[in-house]
């Protein structure tokens, strides 16, 4: 399965992409790392155009990273999940169910929820959705969680994050039954993830998706140096724990890290979840390193129908010339997050109904 994936290469950039890159740095480098990391804006644009031009004329294929195709792998995983769901339905007549609670009307959250529902449908998971207004009370959300906790047709419960500011995330996440916590955000599941010799009932979807990509591309983790950029509860922290459990030596880089480039350039594996476009430059990456880009940053783009497009945390074109393998954005970790949610929901239904 992997051989066809392994041969796909970083695409050469189009003239339009070069033009966009010139406009990019000014918009995107206002990041929280800026005070600690000197990033010469002018030289970046010049350097990246120079490297693009050379790659347009003649680039040895060996210098271009393998693309880790999350879209492709997520499709394989969805097929596997769909087959298991069909087998379960045929054998015991049970169909897995996922309940999604969305509070407020953030456009990005609505898009994610819509995509999750679509993905459920594609693999045969029943999905249930509750939409609550931005100004509803915490009690209202807790009430719906309680209903889903007690509903035997629901095997997974997901409360879309972020929640409105007036709610305490901890109270909400605490209320989800750990048996149905397909996001893996319940403190008990996180606590077990952190402990040696214990396993959570669920591993958070995005971190699990990153690990699954490394595994399916036969990238060794044991004994390797891994650097995680960002320390969020939903990605940075849990993915660092998973890497550690897989016997990597793990460092965390965050907004208070002095000279992050010095740390990242020692890494065999970089997982970036900072939420800062173009943070990770080519010079931050050790030649041959594997780069997993979790960033999903909107940048203005008049040519795109939505008026913006999504980029990761990593300067993709620069990284392609240094890394041995890299995930694109879109088409990398994003689709894997959804595939892992489906897989966690199936796993939950199998466990609840003791289906092997
Ligand atoms: N309780 C909770 N659980 C989550 O798992 C959760 C959440 N809250 N809040 C927001 C983040 C973000 N997230 C993504 C899911 C899919 C893509 C995805 O499919 N991205 C596509 C393309 C997206 C596009 O083009 O719009 C890609 O990268 O190729 C991205 C991001 C889940 N999250
Ligand atoms: Mg992606």
TrEMBL record:
User: Which InterPro entries does this one have?
Assistant: Aminoacid_DH-like_N_sf, NAD(P)-bd_dom_sf, THF_DH/CycHdrlase, THF_DH/CycHdrlase_cat_dom, THF_DH/CycHdrlase_CS, THF_DH/CycHdrlase_NAD-bd_dom
Enumerate the Gene3D superfamilies for this protein.
Answer: Leucine Dehydrogenase, chain A, domain 1, NAD(P)-binding Rossmann-like Domain
> Which key words tag this protein in UniProt?
Hydrolase, Multifunctional enzyme, NADP, One-carbon metabolism, Oxidoreductase, Photorespiration
Q: Name one GO cellular component term.
A: cytosol
Xref: PROSITE patterns: THF_DHG_CYH_2 (PS00767)
**Hydrolase among the record's keywords?**
yes
| Secreted keyword on record | no
Highest taxon above the source species: Eukaryota
State the Gene Ontology terms under molecular function: methenyltetrahydrofolate cyclohydrolase activity; methylenetetrahydrofolate dehydrogenase (NADP+) activity
Annotated pathway: One-carbon metabolism; tetrahydrofolate interconversion
Q: Which PANTHER family match?
A: C-1-TETRAHYDROFOLATE SYNTHASE, CYTOPLASMIC, C-1-TETRAHYDROFOLATE SYNTHASE, CYTOPLASMIC-RELATED
- Please state what the protein is called: Tetrahydrofolate dehydrogenase/cyclohydrolase, catalytic domain
Name its species. Answer: Musa troglodytarum
């Amino acid at each position: 399965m992997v051989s066809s994936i392994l041969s796909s290469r970083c695409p050469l950039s189009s003239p339009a992409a070069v033009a966009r890159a010139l406009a990019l740095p000014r918009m995107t480098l206002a990041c929280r790392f800026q005070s600690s990391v000197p990033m010469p804006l002018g030289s970046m644009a010049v350097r990246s155009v120079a490297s693009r031009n050379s790659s347009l004329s003649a680039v040895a294929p060996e210098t271009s990273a393998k693309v880790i195709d999350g879209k492709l792998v997520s499709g394989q995983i969805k097929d596997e999940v769909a087959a298991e769901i069909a087998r379960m339905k045929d054998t015991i007549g049970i169909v897995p169910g996922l309940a999604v609670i969305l509070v407020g009307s953030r456009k990005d959250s609505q898009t994610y929820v819509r995509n999750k529902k679509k993905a459920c449908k594609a693999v045969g998971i029943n999905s249930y959705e509750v939409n609550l207004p931005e100004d509803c009370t915490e009690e209202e959300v807790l009430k719906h969680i309680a209903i889903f906790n007690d509903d035997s047709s629901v095997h997974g419960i997901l409360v879309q994050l972020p929640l409105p500011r007036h709610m305490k995330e901890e109270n909400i996440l605490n209320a989800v039954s750990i048996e149905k916590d397909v996001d893996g955000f319940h403190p008990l599941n996180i606590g077990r993830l952190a402990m040696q010799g214990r396993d959570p009932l669920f591993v958070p979807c995005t971190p699990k998706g990153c690990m699954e990509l490394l595994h399916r591309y036969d990238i060794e983790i044991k004994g390797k140096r891994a650097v995680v950029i960002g320390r969020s509860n939903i990605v940075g922290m849990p993915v660092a724990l998973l890497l550690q459990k897989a016997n990597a030596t793990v460092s965390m880089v965050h907004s208070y890290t002095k000279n992050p480039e010095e740390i990242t350039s020692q890494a065999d594996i970089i997982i970036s979840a900072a939420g800062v476009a173009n943070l990770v430059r080519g010079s931050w990456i050790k030649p041959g390193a594997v780069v997993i880009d979790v960033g999903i940053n909107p940048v203005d783009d008049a040519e795109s129908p939505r008026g913006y497009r999504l980029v990761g945390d990593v300067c993709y074109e620069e990284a392609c010339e240094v890394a041995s393998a890299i995930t694109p954005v879109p088409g990398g970790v994003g689709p894997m997050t959804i595939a892992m949610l489906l897989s966690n929901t199936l796993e939950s239904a199998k466990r609840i109904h003791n289906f092997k």
